[in-house]
Amino acid sequence: MADADDVRRLALSLPGVVEIDSDGFDFRVGGKGFVWSYPERLPGKPRVIRTDIAVLYVGDEAEKQALLLGEPELFFTVPGYDGLPLVMLRLAAVGGERLAELVTDAWRMRAPADLTDLADDSGS
């Protein structure tokens, strides 16, 4: 079972990551977001930042669908994210090792090559 503190620890352990000031968590590398708190929008209600759900960059629609279909207990999406390479991750349902893999993969897809090369050299 993971939480926002686990996401923060993992994200900040990666090269070149900055945390953007937000009501939850929001991490970027090379100016590009790779993991952040889910901004839930329900009809007729104000937006709520959900720190128990992470939005992850997954690269493309094929990867998104593979995650949604393969691990529905972990991942979901909403209509506002249709066509975007993003999934929502239920943090309470994911283990630490899997979370580390997901955050690192999202970072790799968004990080500039010089940073991913640095991480490869250091074993991240």
UniProtKB/TrEMBL annotation:
It comes from the Bacteria. InterPro entries: YjbR/MT2646/Rv2570-like. It holds the Pfam family YjbR. This is MmcQ/YjbR family DNA-binding protein. The lineage of its organism: Bacteria, Bacillati, Actinomycetota, Actinomycetes, Micromonosporales.
